[in-house]
Amino acid sequence: MSLSRADRQLVALLRGYALLAAAIVLLILLFLVKESWPILQHVALTRFITDTSWHPVQSLYQLTPMLSATLYSTLGAVLLATPLGIGSALFSRYYAPSFLAMVYRRLIELLAGIPSVVYGFWGLTTLAPLIGRLHPPGVSLLTGILILTLMILPTVALTVDAALSAVPIAYVRGAAALGLSRWGLISGVTMPAARSGIAAGILLAAGRAIGETMAVLMVAGNVVEQPHSLFDSVRTLTANIALEMAYATGDHRAALFVSGLALMSMVLVLVGLAEFFTKERRYV
Amino acid sequence: MKNLGVIFVVLLLVIGAVSGFLKSRTDGTKFEKLVLTGSSTVAPLAAEIGKRFESLHSNVRVDVQTGGSSRGVSDARAGLADIGMASRVLKDDEKDLLSFTIALDGISVILNKANPVESLNKQQIIDIYTGKIVNWKDVGGNDAPITVVNKAEGRSTLELFLHYFGLKNTDVKPQVVIGDNQQGIKTVVGNPDAIGYVSVGTAEYEASQGAAIKLLPLEGIAASVENVRNRSFPLSRPLNLVTHAEPTGIAKTFIEFASSPQVNDLIEAQYFVPVPR
User: Is residue A177 domain-resident?
Assistant: First the structure.
């Protein structure tokens, strides 16, 4: 069947949009490479992992502590937020009375809408002093993880909730007809059926955690050193760019674009891994 | 028909954009341009002053570029810029140039109000920042670990602080690194064992608004806007405009404007201190 005229126009339009979206990603990559090119020409790439420290004004460009800080804080937040978020979604969908579930869902949506800088401000003035009493200085990897957890919790909760609600009602009825308990229904039917949606939600949350800048910048301490405990101060790649870009010139500026490139490649690796794992499971 | 409407609107937008572009191009030739280059500390202030200057002199465009005090000096000397910007006094081999101080900048070491330490000497501050003293009890305070708050690389406050204490940033062993002055004050307010440094103007304002910080005196001189203004406070510097020869024409008008009380509010808004006139 040949496409009608309207269809053909729509296809052309959609192709244009798709091309545009793809081109923007490629342009950003190109731009990052172009801006970091001046420093890559006379500083070997290996120096970004072998230099003694990150002091770009004194031509020292060690990036690995920031890479691991980004990785640890994202991982920590995802590990904490996933069970909490799934639990919260299960509660509101299967256990809470309908009125409470509605109020609860609105509250979670509100949590998702709070700007990150507000979380950061709260973390800096309230959470950090609390943790500081436990183990000074208070601004630390742990504080960063906790703030990020708070921020991505609603993302996990809402996407898992949406994935659960998308499970065909026939499955649920079938489970009821078999006389399954509520937990049996959740663990045996709806959770497995909603698996890919849940995985997508966790990935989305991880993406938000990895890219979060302001809140982490305010609570993580920003010292560029390999963390040895949860109470050590860390600087993520995003915080590094936000902290120093405004006053950076020359090689310093280019080095910040290299840290942008590092962040971008890290996200690429994560997306690749996610694609790999979800594909493998989807057709079991 | 709908398509035609869309195309028409897009065409209109394109025509509008192109004609706007051409218009600004042709208009541009009528403007007198004033180029300032140099210190990234002075640049934001110069840009603000430039905006106000433009609103008073509609035929002038002020172009502010950063690149450090040394670039400001060399550009002014080579004539690449009409006016150079330098956040320091001119060195001896730069005395062929003229400098005009438009504002003063000072840095204060701050502690939490709950900290019993009332003053630190220069060597103690150096030892704290290089990690040789790690507990407040070694300088007469509580038995508590010191949280050293340092500024991020590239900030002029960091540069001035390091210069005054004769330190390199690789020597500094911080527990917290911050960006702007506000974040520094919030960090010290939230941590009774923290030591940090911020611009005197910001610190004095925040302390007067009830923030739980105290400004430490340096070399026996209290850290206050007053002492920065009368130039007795040691950790301070002038923000200068630099020219190669006696300024004339539009550059002269601009320097006179930047040195007049008409820009005091702009100077204070950036937490610098106006020069007594």
Answer: yes
